[in-house]
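Lab notes, practical 5.
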Amino acid sequence: MAATQSVVDSILSTTDDSKFKTIQVDSAELIELDEGNLLAVNENKVDTKEFRKRTEEILLSSTRDATQCLFNSLWQLPVEQVEGAYVVKLPEPKTWLPREKPVPKKKPLTKWQEYAKSKGILNKKKSRMVWDELSQEYKPRWGYKRANDDTQEWAIEVPDNADPMEDQFAKRKNAKKERVAKNELQRLRNIARSQKSKVPGVGLTPTEKPSKDQLSKALAVAHKSTASIGKFTDRLPKEKPSRFTGKKRKFEPSIGNLKSEKEKQLNLIETNAKKLPKIDMAKATNRALRQEEQTASREKQSRKTPKKAKGKKALGLGKKASGGRTGGGNKKTRGKRKR
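Output from the prediction step:
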C-alpha cells in the first residue's frame, strides 16, 4: 500500500491542479449510496427553468458528484489482496433489484464432498497431460489415446492367488462395467438426496455390508425372477416365507349386502357430482345484462340511420344496366302506350 500511495502522490505532484476538481462534494449528504450494488442516487433538487436552459451541464455535474461520493465511500471499505491484486470487499446491497426468476439455490454437497469436508481432504487439481513411458511423450491422463492405457496390453500377468484358467481380460472388462454401474447408482442417489426422495429399490443394491432385510429382499426378488414368477422355484428345507411378497388384491363377492352396495353407489355419485363445474350466478347475470345492453344499443343505432331509397337508382340500374332503354316491356306495348 505504501508503494501504491507513493506512486499516486508522485502523479498528483506532477499534474496541474487547475485541470482537476476537488474530491469534496458540497451536497454529499443528499446523495444516497448503495455500495453493494455500486449505486449512487443524487436527490438534489434542480430548478426547472434552469434545467431547461442548461440540461447537459446540470446532468454532467450531478452525475459527477454522485460518482465522486461513491468512489469516496469505496476507498473507505476494507481492502484485501487476491492473486496480487487489491480487491475491495463490498457490503450487502441495500436496494432490492427485481429479477425475472428467483435466485438459484446452492447445490447440496454430494456424499463424497461431505466426507471430504469432515475429514479435511482438499481437492488438488491434477494436470491433464502426463508422461507416457511407452511412447515417450505427453498424453492425456484420461480419455481417448490416454497415457499408460492398460487396455492396450496384449498380455496380463496372472496373480499368484488367482485361478490360472480364469480369463483376466474378461475379468478386467467386468470390473470396469461394475465401476461404471456403481458410479451411475451413486449419481442417482445424489440426485435423490438433493430432491429429498428415495431411490427405487432394485433388489440388492451393491453395499459393503448388506443387512438381513436387504438379503431377504434380494432372495425374494430372485425367487420371482423366473418365468413362473416363483411358482415352481425350489425352496430350502427350513426356509421361512418372505415378508416382501407384496399386497394381494381382495375381490368382493358378487352377491353381497345390498345396503353396503347402495352406500358405495351413492358415494360414487356424490364424488362425480362434486367434479361438475359450479355455476356462478353473479357472473351469468352480468353476462346476460351486458348482452341486453348491447342489443339495445344496436337497435338504437339502427333507428337513427336513415332508410336507403329503393328503386333502380338506389340499386345502380341505369341506361347501361337496362341495355340503353329507358322504358320497360317489348316494342308492341311501347307503341300502344305512345298512342
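Observations recorded by the TA: The longest helix spans residues 168-194. The beta strands are 31-34, 39-42, 79-82, 85-88, 129-132, 137-140.
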